[in-house]
């Protein structure tokens, strides 16, 4: 029996505001537990929420970036449920009148383009964070995150594999980061994903019972969790027909490598939604939308197209640069110093990526100034240093922060490009290697490489390789044993 997988995603994205959605508390990550709190976000009696206008603006920007319709009339609702991380015992969210609807994201997988439709985007406040102590009968709660403005992006069940889901999430993250809607730092919870997954026989239009996997916060774990749940459901359908898939919420246990039941899946009526009495409906004027759109920066697809049209780069290389906004920003900054695009792209996608593997770029930044990389490329291009020496200097710049000129001087790595000096050295090498000269005249190509190697060794690698080759070839033709 052949099955296909059906996946829909609910993505929670923290908006990049300085204060929370209904109060003035800071949204700064990493503060001491419960430091960023006040009577409003902790739900004290007698307090009233006041809507943060910047959160609405960012939600509109997200909607436009994701090709949605902006609903000029929308409202907030109370979503009621009792849980320790929600001090009011209800969440202010949007139910039947969300701020955005009917959007899409186009993705590429294995050379094929596919459109993933977005059902809706709604605004809401984030909940707190529970810290479960190992081997202790208690949990701790940190309310710093409570009230941080969120948008929830809900897709149609258009995804057909865990791999496709990850490609979509990466594309979505790129759009939201480029659009300056959110920093999308998954390790800090700025972007989290709930995945709904079910399977059905190939050719069927029926949507079978789905399972929701909660709070996935890395691409790697999204992939693993969906693959495991997909396998579990296929086995239940194929080999254990006496068992049925239960509509439930499960969590991903990364250590055990499996999904674990949490609770039965709630339906919308379980939350007893009703209009939020403390907040008026939102009426968005056209001018407000136009202003938000005007402030929307160049998005990944547009930037890729411009770079492909402007520079002679391979598409795969451009995809690497575009993959992280910090990387492509850095690339274009290097170009601003007059650096040739292909050289800049090669150094960034090979040498820079090598050192970035162990660095949190978003937190610490790129460890070599764009001006220093541009100068390094210039020194190599002018023949002042060899490319090999350039790579050595590159690593030194990363570890010390010194300029290329300082390091070239300190290490004595300047290339010998003096023709007269190199001719003398080459002459001497030819005299002491008569067998190599004879082999060259007999048509043995490797003899030239040997002589070049001896010349470079004599100059301690400082000679300009291209100039050395030209001199040796010229002298070999005249040289008599």
Automatic annotation (TrEMBL):
GO terms for molecular function: asparaginyl-tRNA synthase (glutamine-hydrolyzing) activity; ATP binding; glutaminyl-tRNA synthase (glutamine-hydrolyzing) activity; transferase activity. GO terms for biological process: translation. Keywords: ATP-binding, Ligase, Nucleotide-binding, Protein biosynthesis, Transferase. SUPFAM superfamilies: GatB/YqeY motif, Glutamine synthetase/guanido kinase. Its EC number is 6.3.5.-. SMART domains: GatB_Yqey. It comes from the Bacteria. The keyword Ligase applies. Pfam families: GatB_N, GatB_Yqey. It catalyses: L-glutamyl-tRNA(Gln) + L-glutamine + ATP + H2O = L-glutaminyl-tRNA(Gln) + L-glutamate + ADP + phosphate + H(+); L-aspartyl-tRNA(Asn) + L-glutamine + ATP + H2O = L-asparaginyl-tRNA(Asn) + L-glutamate + ADP + phosphate + 2 H(+). Allows the formation of correctly charged Asn-tRNA(Asn) or Gln-tRNA(Gln) through the transamidation of misacylated Asp-tRNA(Asn) or Glu-tRNA(Gln) in organisms which lack either or both of asparaginyl-tRNA or glutaminyl-tRNA synthetases. The reaction takes place in the presence of glutamine and ATP through an activated phospho-Asp-tRNA(Asn) or phospho-Glu-tRNA(Gln). Belongs to the GatB/GatE family. GatB subfamily. Heterotrimer of A, B and C subunits. This is Aspartyl/glutamyl-tRNA(Asn/Gln) amidotransferase subunit B. It comes from Natronincola peptidivorans. The gene is gatB.
């Amino acid at each position: 029996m052949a099955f296909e997988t059906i996946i829909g995603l609910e993505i929670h994205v923290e908006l990049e505001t300085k204060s929370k959605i209904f109060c003035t508390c800071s949204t700064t990550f990493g503060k001491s537990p419960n430091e960023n709190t006040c009577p409003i976000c902790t739900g004290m009696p007698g307090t009233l929420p006041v809507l943060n206008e910047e959160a609405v603006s960012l939600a509109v920007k997200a909607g436009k970036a994701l090709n949605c319709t902006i609903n000029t009339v929308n409202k907030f609702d109370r979503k009621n449920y009792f849980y320790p991380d929600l001090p009011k015992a209800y969440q202010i969210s949007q139910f039947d009148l969300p701020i955005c609807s009917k959007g899409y994201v186009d993705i590429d997988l294995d050379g094929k383009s596919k459109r993933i439709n977005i059902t809706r985007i709604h605004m809401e406040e984030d909940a707190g964070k529970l810290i479960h102590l190992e081997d202790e009968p208690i949990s701790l709660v940190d309310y710093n995150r409570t009230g941080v403005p969120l948008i929830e992006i809900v897709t149609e069940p258009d995804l057909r594999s865990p791999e496709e889901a990850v490609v979509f999430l990466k594309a979505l993250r790129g759009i939201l980061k480029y659009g300056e809607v959110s920093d999308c730092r998954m390790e800090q919870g700025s972007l989290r994903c709930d995945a709904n997954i079910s399977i059905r026989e190939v050719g069927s239009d029926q949507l079978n019972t789905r399972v929701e996997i909660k709070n996935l916060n890395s691409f790697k774990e999204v992939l693993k969790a969906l693959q495991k749940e997909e396998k579990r459901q296929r086995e239940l359908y194929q080999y254990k027909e006496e068992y049925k898939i239960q509509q439930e919420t499960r969590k991903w246990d990364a250590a055990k490598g499996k999904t674990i039941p949490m609770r039965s899946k709630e339906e919308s009526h379980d939350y007893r939604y009703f209009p939020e009495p403390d907040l008026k409906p939102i009426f968005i004027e056209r001018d407000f939308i136009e202003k938000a759109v005007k402030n929307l920066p160049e998005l990944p697809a547009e930037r890729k197209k411009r770079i492909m049209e402007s520079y002679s780069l391979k598409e795969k290389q451009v995809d690497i640069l575009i993959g992280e906004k910090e990387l492509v920003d850095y690339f274009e900054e290097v170009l601003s110093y007059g650096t040739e695009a292909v050289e800049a792209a090669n150094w960034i996608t090979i040498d820079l990526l090598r050192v970035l593997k162990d660095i949190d770029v978003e937190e610490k930044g790129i460890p070599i100034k764009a001006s220093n990389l541009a100068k390094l490329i210039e020194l190599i291009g002018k023949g002042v240093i060899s490319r090999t020496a350039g790579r050595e200097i590159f690593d030194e710049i990363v570890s010390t922060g010194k300029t290329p000129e300082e390091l070239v001087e300190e290490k004595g790595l300047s290339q010998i490009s003096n023709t007269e000096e190199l001719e003398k050295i080459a002459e001497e090498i030819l005299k002491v290697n008569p067998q190599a000269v004879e082999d060259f005249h007999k048509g043995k190509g490797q003899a030239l490489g040997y002589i070049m190697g001896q010349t470079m060794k004599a100059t301690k690698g400082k000679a300009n390789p291209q100039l050395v080759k030209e001199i040796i070839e010229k002298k070999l033709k005249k040289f008599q044993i």
